[in-house]
Write a structure and sequence with these properties.
The complex is a heterodimer of chains A (259) and B (638). Chain A has 259 residues and is of the alpha+beta class. Chain A folds into two domains: 112 residues, Beta-grasp domain (Ubiquitin-like (UB roll), Roll), CATH 3.10.20; 117 residues, Orthogonal Bundle (Fumarate Reductase Iron-sulfur Protein, Chain B, domain 2). Chain A is built from nine helices and seven strands. In chain A, strands 2-1-5-3-4 form a five-stranded mixed beta sheet. In chain A, strand 3 and strand 4 form a beta hairpin. In chain A, helix 2 runs antiparallel to helix 7 and helix 5 packs antiparallel against helix 7. Chain B is of the alpha/beta class and 638 residues long. Among the domains of chain B are: 136 residues, Succinate dehydrogenase/fumarate reductase flavoprotein, catalytic domain (Flavocytochrome C3, Chain A, domain 1); 151 residues, Methane Monooxygenase Hydroxylase, Chain G, domain 1, CATH 1.20.58. Helix content of chain B is 37%, strand content 15%. Chain B contains 17 helices and 20 strands. The chains are: A alpha+beta (259), B alpha/beta (638). Chains A and B meet through helix 1, helix 2 and helix 3 of A and helix 3, helix 5, helix 6, helix 11 and helix 12 of B. The complex binds flavin-adenine dinucleotide and FE2/S2 (inorganic) cluster. The site of FE2/S2 (inorganic) cluster has 12 residues of chain A, from loops.
Chain lengths: 259, 638
């Protein structure tokens, strides 16, 4: 592990007081940043200083700080979660930056996301999409034995690849159309691959797509930048599967299979 | 000392739960819609409970701090979930899971609860598979199992290193379906500020909308707290930043008993401290101990790089001391031994507070590809945080506060001593005794939420009926007033130290004196230090407002007030328990080999503390524990 170092950086950071405020960039120098600290720890460090100087701290969403909860999400130098490959911004470390760097920090931008405060946005439209059908409709109790239905290992692994989505919404922020297609397709694909999910496959794909449109997300026109932005490297092959599922569902109507 | 009644049903152990289910009242489906229930928390316990109760027809209001229920801290659990399926055909059974859990908890859990947990464990797996949880599978398409955290059978189900995420997304899906159906009203970005109690019954909560700061009153016929654990009292822990004790602490201040607060679990395989600005310790799944070998240099102060230290200069201290369990000894044993090595000057890494976890032998045996398939994501995580390659040089690990076995006292029905207040998941004290086995917390959260509360809540409401106390009544107004004045007071102090700074100070005291090893003098020092820190907080903290905006430091200030109070109670409890058991090691009760020595004569009980007012000492209540099915023995992992 490398030696401890400190660097001095300058932040150009977005400040906005609620959704009605128009917002602006503020330039703040930050001295003595420990290179072993994470990007968010650098912001904490700055916030402690701001608070002691009677200034308002910069608000940003975060929780687990280990790349799994999907709470954090900001644009660092124009890239969702920053330039680290396959990682969230809470996993980005300051050793990735050089002394003297200027770093631009902004909230995720998309029509469907309103800014709440500074770097925080309202991602609740993603919730609505899941509510529209991102589940298998089974009540608690009465499920058959876990081994009653074998699932081919490669299908199950692929379902897991899709299920790895953390719902951070970076795909939306990266997309020129602000589409949530990678997010939606990951859920559709996970359940399409599993026998348990087939019963509702048709209704699921149609309702989730409809809700995505209703929430103000754009359409997917195959820019493919979402895949690169995804901290969990969810593949666009799930969008291809989504398209096949959509076609099937459109042909066979909304009737769940098996009825 | 007053004793508490756990309301354990009669009959033979294996029949208690079924009999109890028969004896409890039911509420017919048409009548359920007359009842409203508040669920605070959307982790495995809260999401499972919300979804299940809503499916049954209750009107549910659910709250969480995060912007989405899917982000509760259960999402971070990596390793797996236990169940007594015996799919591996290696001798597992409900009975064995029960015995292992009672013994693992060092005989400080209730037998009847643990047995029920083992019983419903199998239903959990079935439920999750039906929800589409992509558990790992064998080539033939059946579910895969692994041995985890020292178990001698393979009973752990997993979804790569993301088991908690997948289980939570399953429960979140079920919850989302009920939100869409209008059966659950979801309040995200809301924090519970107070529990409203009147006439000895829980009537509802006060919640703060974290976006605009408004305080809201919510009444219901029953309140369920599923608000997780309080390891963040140590400041640095494996928990998420928002994890807190405040919800259950407010309930404690309203009369609910807090059981075994000092029972905390320090996990042996976290990443070590590397920076002064560090805010969290990342867990490396314990499954790593299946293939990694723990060692330190034989000579203290040997600062050479790991790969320069030859085989015979290494001390594989776990393998040496515990030949039959080796690197797979329980968490508390592994953690304590690691700390002892570091205290003896044999620690490695920049701070000397780490031991090696070495995969060289496993890579030689199985090949890099196999190891990468098993642990690839963990190795990547390590490389990213520590900036070192664990395929080439041994990992460094150190114990970190991870799980809290203590929590609000509940009876067999998971109801606290306040009528109508139920507590589920990590927030209650119930099933893990003095030490939790790996992969058993996820099991407990889902057991409580899916398979226990649906029955016991009906049993309660069937007897107690509706609450009939509305949000306009004095009890709610007083609570709003209380929450409001606390916020105003915080903002008015305007001192010179940040919340983080004071929390870090509390964390150090907790780690030094109320952590892995405890003694009378240290615990007394801790109590005094915490009182000083508390006084300092109220005089000198600086909290940024305004309160009508999203302000994380204001939220954290409120949580720190409660952590300060809790820290003191933990020390009081640890001081009172003059024995060692599970994760609680009193150095006065330690064998020459460094093993915990229980004192069953005097401490075979649950200690539950009752709040008596700001300045007063808390009152102690005990629930005696009877072991009728597993013989009380000293744990030995030799
Ligand atoms: C890194 C890590 C790895 C783990 N790995 C495993 C594992 O492999 N196997 C295993 O069995 N266990 C594991 N555990 C333990 C296990 O994950 C937890 O014990 C369990 O998930 C707790 O679930 P819960 O539902 O009780 O609480 P949580 O998931 O913590 O949920 C708490 C909920 O309460 C809400 N909340 C809290 N306070 C308030 C408040 N004041 N107002 C409103 N809402 C509030 C939160 O927003 C959240 O929704 C792990 C724990 C950690 C930290
Ligand atoms: S804070 Fe959880 S993913 Fe970044």
């Amino acid at each position: 592990m490398s030696e401890h170092e400190t660097i001095n950086i300058t932040l150009k950071v977005w400040r906005q007081n609620g959704p009605e405020d128009s917002g602006r960039f503020e330039t703040i120098p930050v001295a003595d940043v420990d290179t072993h600290s994470s990007f968010l720890e650098m912001l904490d460090f700055l916030n402690e200083k701001l608070i002691l100087e009677d200034k308002e701290p910069i608000e940003f969403d975060n929780d687990c700080r280990e790349g799994i909860c999907g709470t954090c999400g900001i644009m660092v130098n124009g890239i969702p979660h920053g330039h680290g490959k396959g990682m969230t911004v809470c996993q980005l470390h300051m050793r990735e930056f050089d002394d003297g760097d200027t770093i631009v920090v902004e909230p995720f931008r998309a029509r469907a996301y309103k800014v709440i405060q500074d770097l925080m946005v309202d991602r609740s439209p993603l919730e609505k999409i899941i509510q529209a059908g991102g589940y298998i409709s089974v009540n608690t109790g009465g499920a058959p034995d876990g081994n009653a239905v074998p699932v081919a290992q490669e299908k199950s692994e692929e379902a897991m690849d899709a299920a790895a989505c953390i719902g951070c919404g970076a795909c939306v922020a990266s997309c020129p159309n602000a589409s949530a297609m990678l997010f939606v397709s990951a859920k559709v694909s996970q359940f399409a691959l599993l026998p348990q999910g087939r019963a509702e496959a048709n209704t699921r794909v149609l309702s989730m797509l409809q809700e995505m449109d209703a929430c103000g997300f754009g359409n997917c026109t195959n820019h493919r930048v979402c895949e690169a932005a995804c901290p969990k490297e969810v593949s666009i092959t799930h969008i291809a599967r989504f398209n096949r599922e959509f076609l099937k569902a459109s042909l066979f109507g909304r009737m769940p299979m098996g009825e | 000392m007053q004793t508490l009644d756990g309301k354990i049903p009669g009959g033979p152990l294996a029949e208690k739960w079924d009999r109890h289910k028969m004896d409890m009242k039911l509420i017919n489906p048409a009548n359920r819609r007359q009842f409203s229930v508040i669920v605070v928390g959307t982790g495995l316990a809260g999401a499972a409970a919300s979804a299940s109760l809503a499916e049954m027809g209750y009107n549910v209001k659910t709250f969480c701090i995060q912007d989405s229920p899917r982000r509760a801290h259960s999402i971070a659990a990596q390793g797996g979930i236990n169940a007594a399926k015996n799919y591996a055909n290696d001798g597992d059974s409900i009975w064995r899971l029960f015995v292992d859990t009672v013994k693992g908890g060092d005989f400080r859990a209730r037998e009847a609860n643990v047995y029920r947990l083992a019983q419903v464990s199998n239903n959990i797996i079935d439920q999750c598979v039906a929800q589409g949880v992509p558990f790992a599978r064998e080539y033939g398409g059946l579910l895969a199992n692994r041995s985890f955290g020292g178990a001698q059978v393979s009973r752990t189900f997993y979804a790569r290193g993301q088991t908690g995420q997948q289980l939570l997304l399953g429960a979140y899906g079920a919850l989302s379906r009920q939100i869409a159906a209008g059966q659950v009203q979801m309040f995200s970005r809301h924090e519970m500020m107070d529990l409203v109690v009147s006439g000895d019954r829980a009537r509802g909560i006060i919640a703060r909308n974290l976006v605009n700061g408004e305080l809201e009153a919510h009444a219901a016929d029953a309140v369920i707290l599923a608000t997780g654990g309080y390891s963040n009292v140590f400041y640095l822990s494996t928990n998420a930043i928002s994890c807190n004790v405040s919800a259950i602490w407010q309930a404690y201040k309203k009369g609910a008993y807090f059981a075994n607060p000092c029972f905390t679990q320090i996990h042996p395989t976290s990443l070590p401290h590397v920076s002064g600005h560090q805010t969290k310790l990342t867990l490396m799944s314990e499954s790593l101990r299946n293939d990694g070998r723990v060692w330190v240099p034989k000579n203290a102060e040997d600062k050479r790089p790991a790969n320069d230290i030859s085989e015979n200069e290494r001390d594989y201290f776990l393998e040496e001391k515990y030949p039959s369990f080796g690197n797979l000894v329980p968490r508390d044993v592994a953690s304590r031994n690691a700390k002892q090595q570091c205290d003896a000057g044999k620690g490695v890494g920049p701070t000397g507070r780490a031991v090696y976890l070495d995969f060289t032998q496993a890579i030689k045996r199985d090949g890099k590809a196999v190891i990468a398939r098993k642990y690839g994501n963990l190795f990547d995580m390590y490389r990213n945080i520590i900036d070192d390659d664990p395929y080439e040089t041994p990992m460094m690990i150190y114990p970190a506060a991870h799980f809290t076995m203590g929590g609000l006292w509940v009876d067999y029905n998971l109801m606290s001593n306040i009528s109508g207040l139920f507590v589920l998941g990590e927030a209650n004290f119930s099933d893990h005794g003095a030490n939790r086995l790996g992969a058993s917390a996820l099991m407990q959260g889902l057991a409580d939420g899916y398979f226990v509360i649906p029955y016991t809540l009906a049993g309660y409401l069937g007897d107690a009926g509706k609450s009939e106390i509305g949000e306009d009544q004095a009890a709610f107004k007083d609570s709003i007033q209380f929450a409001q004045s606390r916020i105003e007071k915080l903002l008015a102090i305007n001192g010179k130290r940040t919340v983080e700074d004071i929390h870090r100070q509390l964390g150090r005291v907790m780690e030094d004196h109320v952590g892995l090893a405890r003694d009378e003098a240290g615990l007394k020092t801790a109590i005094q230090r915490i009182q000083e820190i508390r006084a300092e907080f109220w005089e000198n903290v600086k909290v940024a407002g305004p309160a009508n905006r999203y302000r994380l430091n204001l939220q954290k200030a409120g949580r720190l007030i409660d952590f300060l109070d809790l820290g003191e109670l933990m020390a009081i409890d640890a001081l009172n328990r003059k024995e060692s058991c599970g994760g609680h090691l009193r150095t006065e009760a330690e064998s020459e080999e460094g093993e915990a020595i229980r004192d069953d004569e005097n401490f075979c009980h649950v200690s539950a503390w009752g709040y008596q007012g700001e300045e007063a000492q808390p009152a102690l209540f005990v629930e005696p524990l009877a072991f009728e099915n597993v013989k009380l023995t000293q744990r030995s992992y030799k």
